[in-house]
Design a protein that fits this description.
This protein folds into two domains: 224 residues, 3-Layer(aba) Sandwich (Rossmann fold), CATH 3.40.50; 270 residues, 3-Layer(aba) Sandwich (UDP-N-acetylmuramoyl-L-alanine:D-glutamate ligase). The protein has 19 helices and 18 strands. The strands form three sheets. A nine-stranded mixed sheet has the order 12-11-10-13-14-15-16-17-18, sandwiched between helices. Strands 4-3-2-5-6-7-8 form a seven-stranded parallel sheet, with helices on both faces. It has a two-stranded antiparallel ribbon with strand order 1-9. The site of ligand NPW has 27 residues, from helix 1, helix 2 and helix 3. Belongs to the NnrD/CARKD family. In the N-terminal section; belongs to the NnrE/AIBP family.
Length: 500
């Protein structure tokens, strides 16, 4: 599992080490220089003779960058530091000067006297740019001279390799927002532990590949945001024991689809069956289509351990909406986990337990929050997915899985996940219906655990997102997929993950 820690936790872990005189900045800059040198070697074949530009802000992030620049200069790199502030890290600047690095300033006064031209020339000639404007001390997007530097580098053609120091400057460190100027990086070299912005959308898209440098911090306690990796899935998966029978494995009740959208029912059932479930009971108006596609399904009422409701339930299908409402009410009251998607999100009772899991996309989450009196539009959710998923969890009590290219999951007790497992090709009609089925199957298999441990539904939701994303990759590596392809790839993906 990948963990991330917010700025306060990182500072708290740094403090005793700094007091004890541990050279954290030296460790950070040494690791940074090593990663930059490796990237230069990969790109140009050698390190010596490369040209590097350092964007240097006023804090310790700029200090890391200056020290790394000094190390690179000693390896034969022509290093130019551009100071975006009149106040920069003194030791770092001295180290760079001692290593014969060049220093340019770009505060407002200097720019009026024409310093901008040499800065532009240095950026235009650079093989690599190190973004050391802001680290965990940044508040809001990069301002002032730094913002002009960001624009200059972003417009450079050919584009140099951009390495973010600790994290891309100007992103919301703890919430993953991107409010102003941010320089998109190819590589981020982060120190001590991942920061939430490196996992959370939209900021995570600015980070590129992320490399972690161990500087000896002891980050303990719960992480701010986690990301499941393949090897985490087996511990969560309801792998059947030798003597289990189909009812023991879990029966999933599915109330999805409608006369208008029978495909949603077929796909949500496909997702569940191919993930592995004892039985699916289907209730609804698309029974003929579901049975034609999946003869193993049983139609009608009966005991179930978990539910999937809502995908493809049309607003004018009163009968199907009433079945979805009943399932939702029954599941909330009777310890049966419920996945609530699309057409049932507006049927949600005022408060529900965390074993009710909402699976909206950004537009649906905005509508859900607006219906509860919040002034929110889709664009707001896209700009701050974590904050809005959290708000929906607080207002409803439900576990919230917010779908997106990076899926954000929020549950009780701070359980927070950001999963970026699927290819962009997965943004296709019906993929969400399959995801609902995957999660439903997991919940049916672990229904009593998911009720007893309020944080477990969030972990299962993250696991569902991981498996769904992996299935899209497996269905057609690097190319287009349909929702049916994704469902078809599920058994092999699950098999590979639980055997590993
Ligand atoms: N502690 C250690 O030993 C270690 C720390 N490490 C490194 O230190 C980094 C954290 O350093 P940091 O705390 O100095 O903050 P940092 O992010 O460099 O910038 C703060 C400065 O920026 C300014 N500023 C703020 N917002 C702004 C904006 N939007 N636009 C423009 N300016 C803005 C702000 O100004 P102020 O608002 O205070 O006037 C302040 O002067 C961390 O990410 C890691 O790289 C590693 O070496 C490991 C060891
Ligand atoms: K930075």
């Amino acid at each position: 599992m990948l963990h991330s820690w917010d700025a306060a936790a990182v500072r708290a872990a740094e403090e005793p080490l700094l007091t004890a005189g541990v050279p954290l900045m030296a460790r950070a800059s040494f690791g940074l220089a090593a990663h930059v040198a490796r990237a230069l070697r990969d790109r140009r074949g050698r390190v010596g003779g490369a040209r590097a530009v350092l964007l240097v802000g006023s804090g310790n992030n700029g200090g890391d960058t200056l020290h790394a620049g000094a190390l690179l200069a000693r390896r034969g790199v022509a290093v130019t530091a551009v100071l975006a502030s009149g106040r920069v890290h003194g030791d770092g600047l001295a180290a760079l000067r001692a290593a014969h690095g060049r220093v340019l300033t770009l505060d407002d006064a200097c720019e009026r006297h024409g310093v901008a031209a040499p800065v532009a020339a240095a950026v235009a000639a650079a093989d690599v740019v190190l973004d050391g404007l802001l680290g965990i001390g940044g508040r809001g997007g990069v301002r002032g001279a730094g913002a002009r530097l960001v624009d200059l580098v972003a417009a450079a053609d050919p584009r140099p390799l951009v390495v973010a120091v600790d994290l891309p400057s100007g992103v919301g460190v703890d919430d993953g927002t991107r409010t102003g100027a941010v320089l998109d990086a190819d590589l981020t070299v982060t120190f001590g532990g991942h920061k939430p912005a490196l996992l959370l959308p939209p900021a995570s898209a600015a980070a590129g590949r992320v490399e972690l440098v161990d500087i000896g911090l002891r980050l303990t306690g719960a992480p701010a945001v986690a990301r499941l990796e393949d090897h985490d899935v087996v511990a969560l998966w309801p792998v059947p024991g030798r003597d289990v029978h189909k009812y023991g494995r879990g029966v999933l009740g599915v109330v999805t689809g409608s006369g208008h959208y029978p495909g949603a029912a077929v796909l949500s059932v496909a997702g569940a069956l191919r993930t592995g479930v004892g039985m699916v009971r289907y209730r609804g108006s698309a029974g003929a289509q579901v049975l034609a596609a999946h003869p193993e399904v049983v139609e009608g009422d009966g005991r179930v351990q978990a539910w999937v409701v809502g995908s493809g339930v049309a607003p004018d299908d009163a009968e199907q909406r009433s079945r979805a409402r009943d399932a939702l009410a029954h599941g909330s009251r009777h310890d049966e986990p419920v996945v609530v998607d699309a057409g049932a999100l507006d049927l949600l009772p005022e408060r529900v337990p965390p074993h009710v899991i909402l699976t909206p996309h950004a537009g649906e989450l905005a509508a859900l929050l607006a219906a509860r009196g919040e002034r929110v539009e889709r664009a707001d959710v896209e700009a701050g997915p974590l904050a809005h998923a959290r708000r929906a969890h607080e207002l409803t009590g439900a576990t919230v899985l917010l779908k997106g290219s990076t899926t954000v999951v929020v549950g009780p007790h701070g359980a927070t996940y950001a999963q970026a497992d699927g290819p962009a090709w997965l943004a296709t009609a019906g993929a969400g219906d399959v995801l609902g089925g995957v999660l439903g199957a997991l919940l049916a298999g672990r229904a009593s655990d998911a009720v007893a441990d309020p944080a477990l539904p969030a972990a299962l939701a993250a696991a569902a997102a991981l498996v769904h994303g992996r299935a899209a990759h497996r269905a057609n590596p690097g190319g287009p997929v349909t929702a049916s392809d994704v469902a078809a790839a599920l058994p092999a993906v699950v098999g590979a993950l639980v055997r590993a």
